[in-house]
Amino acid sequence: xxxxxxxxxxxxxxxxxxxxxxxxxxxxxxxxxxxxxxxxxxxxxxxxxxxxxxxxxxxxxxxxxxxxxxxxxxxxxxxxxxxxxxxxxxxxxxxxxxxxxxxxxxxxxxxxxxxxxxxxxxxxxxxxxxxxxxxxxxxxxxxxxxxxxxxxxxxxxxxxxxxxxxxxxxxxxxxxxxxxxxxxxxxxxxxxxxxxxxxxxxxxxxxxxxxxxxxxxxxxxxxxxxxxxxxxxxxxxxxxxxxxxxxxxxxxxxxxxxxxxxxxxxxxxxxxxxxxxxxxxxxxxxxxxxxxxxxxxxxxxxxxxxxxxxxxxxxxxxxxxxxxxxxxxxxxxxxxxxxxxxxxxxx
Amino acid sequence: xxxxxxxxxxxxxxxxxxxxxxxxxxxxxxxxxxxxxxxxxxxxxxxxxxxxxxxxxxxxxxxxxxxxxxxxxxxxxxxxxxxxxxxxxxxxxxxxxxxxxxxxxxxxxxxxxxxxxxxxxxxxxxxxxxxxxxxxxxxxxxxxxxxxxxxxxxxxxxxxxxxxxxxxxxxxxxxxxxxxxxxxxxxxxxxxxxxxxxxxxxxxxxxxxxxxxxxxxxxxxxxxxxxxxxxxxxxxxxxxxxxxxxxxxxxxxxxxxxxxxxxxxxxxxxxxxxxxxxxxx
Amino acid sequence: xxxxxxxxxxxxxxxxxxxxxxxxxxxxxxxxxxxxxxxxxxxxxxxxxxxxxxxxxxxxxxxxxxxxxxxxxxxxxxxxxxxxxxxxxxxxxxxxxxxxxxxxxxxxxxxxxxxxxxxxxxxxxxxxxxxxxxxxxxxxxxxxxxxxxxxxxxxxxxxxxxxxxxxxxxxxxxxxxxxxxxxxxxxxxxxxxxxxxxxxxxxxxxxxxxxxxxxxxxxxxxxxxxxxxxxxxxxxxxxxxxxxxxxxxxxxxx
Amino acid sequence: xxxxxxxxxxxxxxxxxxxxxxxxxxxxxxxxxxxxxxxxxxxxxxxxxxxxxxxxxxxxxxxxxxxxxxxxxxxxxxxxxxxxxxxxxxxxxxxxxxxxxxxxxxxxxxxxxxxxxxxxxxxxxxxxxxxxxxxxxxxxxxxxxxxxxxxxxxxxxxxxxxxxxxxxxxxxxxxxxxxxxxxxxxxxxxxxxxxxxxxxxxxxxxxxxxxxxxxxxxxxxxxxxxxxxxxxxxxxxxxxxxxxxxxxxxxxxxxxxxxxxxxxxxxxxxxxxxxxxxxxxxxxxxxxxxxxxxxxxxxxxxxxxxxxxxxxxxxxxxxxxxxxxxxxxxxxxxxxxxxxxxxxxxxxxxxxxxxxxxxxxxxxxxxxxxxxxxxxxxxxxxxxxxxxxxxxxxxxxxxxxxxxxxxxxxxxxxxxxxxxxxxxxxxx
Lengths: 347, 281, 254, 428
Ligand SMILES: Cc1cc2nc3c(=O)[nH]c(=O)nc-3n(C[C@H](O)[C@H](O)[C@H](O)COP(=O)(O)OP(=O)(O)OC[C@H]3O[C@@H](n4cnc5c(N)ncnc54)[C@H](O)[C@@H]3O)c2cc1C
Ligand code: SF4
Ligand code: SF4
Ligand code: SF4
What we know:
In chain A, 32% of the residues lie in helices and 20% in strands. Chain A is of the alpha+beta class. By secondary structure, chain C is an alpha/beta fold. Chain C has helices spanning 17-23, 26-35, 65-77, 86-90, 102-109, 141-153, 164-170, 176-180, 196-199, 216-225, 230-237, 245-252, and strands spanning 6-11, 37-41, 53-59, 78-84, 132-134. The N and C termini of chain C lie far apart (59 Å). One iron/sulfur cluster binds at residues 164-165, 168-169, 173, 175-177, 184, 186-187, 195, 198, 204 of chain C.
């Protein structure tokens, strides 16, 4: 697939004075739709901005992951007419820059690239993905629920970005990850960064690394889960979990969807739409004649956890959890995947 | 880039009522290019669209060598399948496919074949049977065990005499309602195991039917000495795409739409989430 | 005269808000009227044609004997009978009084109790078979239109069976419960409203009744952990759908 | 003809269910019964024991046509009990919410419930065939009102955002601007509506009933003010029960509201315009002059004209409010305390009274709600009593229609039956 841009240049480093950040963004906004973290009721949401000042780059996590601009919560697949069949396909997407994406979410996008970009590539996803540049931002702040460190997906990022920002106080260290990323920097006054800035970057990341409160032991996960399919914890979770689906709706690697035809009142034309679905919901595994393969909540909870930690590996060659902590933060019942694994591991 | 979600128009060329709630449709693509490019294996399925109502995965029930038309045998149970029941010759539906793994036809060649089907589960197995009939000498002993709820639920009965010329057919029904005469077995399909001649040696088993039926079929066969890699099952799961995207059909690391629907039982038995009474049951 | 489906709209104990939603379909009202015959619709027309009807929408809870009779007649004259809104689905707001002795409630409103005759408020399926439920207080217009289209096509419409949280997340709201500690019923309530209340800063009141896998007991336990008094929890669950087994368990869990 | 039987099994095109039975014998009214089929839902009964912050959401369900009125009245009564003074922004938003509902309810009543009577149709559905532009105008106006309600209140039927001391969320400036443009565009439609209503041939029927409405120091009263009347009533909301009572009249089966020492009275658009004409928006007054109508006017049939003027007024005043709104997040905190609170507002159909007694835990101990239609029922019967002699010469069918029209003038909302009494009747 074309999505993964290859690195042809060794990561060059430049420095951007913080006060010039808005110039960079302004510059990007001329050519692209810039989507970045914007404050929303005490939290943050990735939104298309109209003014660089809207960006709040010191955010910890966003309500929905930036996945939402690539694999959209609602999407029209095509219009149809009962007599004529499929009527139109979508316009090519406008170029967009995902700005300030954290390492965990970049890793999640890489997983989505695997699920959506290979074997019958999903044209809607791929089209948008090809038109999306990623300006990532290393994490120097750590949230209460973050455990990317354990998953090897943060707080710093090695690849998958076009530009990578690290906040060094009054300056921002910018690492270039692709020719397209380099291109983004045209017309912005930059100074080459002395190599010692890498030491400064490491210092800040090390500070961050020491702040993690949550961890998940990833060694032998598959075996641990296989051995504990009947552990009593599942029954406790069955009683606790609300099956509300929130944990999966906010997950950056969840990709399930449902398809619904929306018919116009003329009963002839309409649109086929897809929208995010969730394995935590009762109807998800229900088939004709009312048979349901995962009627019990514990079966669904297991599906979520096993899928992330045991099944992704054979499917996509990587773990399915990037440690962003969103599912923990969103759960009314404080159900915590790191706790579950710790208990299964006998901790 | 080709859009795997975009159905092509196919016209209904024939409508054959099989039972009170099941119909076989003969279809062909409207567009000549699509028609020519369309190829499938016995056991594969298509996604059938009724625009405005939805899409449903349905097995192809005809023989691949009988192109350029193909058939689907549909039981009318929900929105799409019931709406199909209202269509007639000349009407159009949307079709995309063929998807999924087929039955292991190459593996069957030169071996004995035991087919165990329940209800609508005979539909995806019919192309296997017709392929066998076509080159009967390529296969060893072939037996078909077919169970249905009542005699009225039996599919393809007019074709049975022709089949029986070449293969052995055993039938069973769960119940015989008043007014029906039934000379074959009454009971679940596994009760036919006592009658059949098939033995584990050099035999491949193909089975399709309700999950609960397949569970007992597999269990019984294992105790009779069949090995888990001799038994092939075709699974049903909910599907919204057919191409490994919507996630609905996943069982462990498997996507039923792509890694299946036909699986060797050996592939399933190790899965944590029990399928057909696998180890984790 | 026409082969348009004939529709009847019946009113029981209700605020008339759900049937008003038919008239609130302004942008598509004329299309709807073109597609179905609103044969019996007292709020909108003076000449109401007698049954039988193809579809009957019943609005309101059943709170007295006369209504039971009227409902049974409606069942007889309609091929498809639809519970329109939460009152008809599960007793709705009028069912609040079900946990207070009848005479006590009555005496708070009227002096002369002789002329008052009322029973507990029930959803219509307490008395007749119901073919479809359109939940909500009031019903969601989008779902209403989906239902009408489905009826015209002879299919069951796609109505969300799961929790309000799903739609709340799809709209990227800040969760009132986990972020502000406000006791929200969204996690156990049927979606389909587009998470209307949380999207406007107000907790879900559970007006659409229990979702398909509502775990109200667990939510009730959380309510108490967040500092709600037992009586608050009971009031939360005994509001729009207190009679449903799911919400009953919620009320009884603390 | 000296005998007449007017029997309406169900009153059509009103909200809620009722019936009418009039028997005239030898020119004398032998029986006059406005029957209410609505079984009581006992709101005042089950509000007791609920928490104050649930009240707006609960009373909303008294009526699906004017839910915002019930909410706002309840909220203001609760604020009265707690001693809360709300910000001017909140007062403006509340007024906007109330006006939006007037727009919606008035266009619903004028075009869909009343107009068919005067133009000779059984319903707007059949009227649409011959008067499509008028019906489309109605749908447009009604949608505008609904959209404004949804914008401020979060939903058109049973809004959700209005709470004690404020709103749970504010509309965006962008959306307000967009709706202001639509309100501006709706002026001609509203003017057409006034013209249409003024052009209707209405029965000549007048008697000086007492007209009652809120009147406030500033502007055309809707959420605040004193209750005044054409006979000199002038009271604050807390004095309501000292002056307005209800009694059960055996012949009628409805509770009759009356003013202590006098009798029935009329609330609603006609009363409001009669008492506050000079406070209508300039455009509305100009429209009145343009079509040549004068107030005070005591012909209840002229209610439809008053309603159309209020429709115009609502659009104009909404525009003025949106224009001055700054919209800032405000502190909406407050303290709960024991007390009793009272509020009267002008719902689309007239004055609406709520009062609550609340204990120190915020639990409701007593609720008293009187809806506009409950106020009017007595007067409707008085109208009928005086009107029936005029129709004695008509055919039974025509007489029936005319009597129904008398009732529909009031746009009665029987669903708001918090205070009605239900008859035990079996419909043949
Ligand atoms: C690989 C495969 C092959 C199949 N082959 C055949 C066949 O040859 N003949 C045949 O009659 N049926 C076949 N089915 C079953 C068929 O797909 C379902 O009966 C059909 O999807 C029901 O759709 P509907 O719109 O009619 O029902 P709906 O109205 O959508 O729903 C009815 C019920 O079906 C369930 N359901 C909805 N969507 C799906 C879905 N995508 N897959 C499974 N269940 C679903 C719902 O949970 C509901 O309970 C096959 C299924 C699979 C997975
Ligand atoms: S968010 Fe929590 S309660 Fe909701 S489905 Fe996920 S684990 Fe269960
Ligand atoms: S606000 Fe309510 S509905 Fe929304 S996510 Fe939170 S608990 Fe669920
Ligand atoms: S959020 Fe809850 S209370 Fe609000 S409309 Fe939806 S279901 Fe009803």
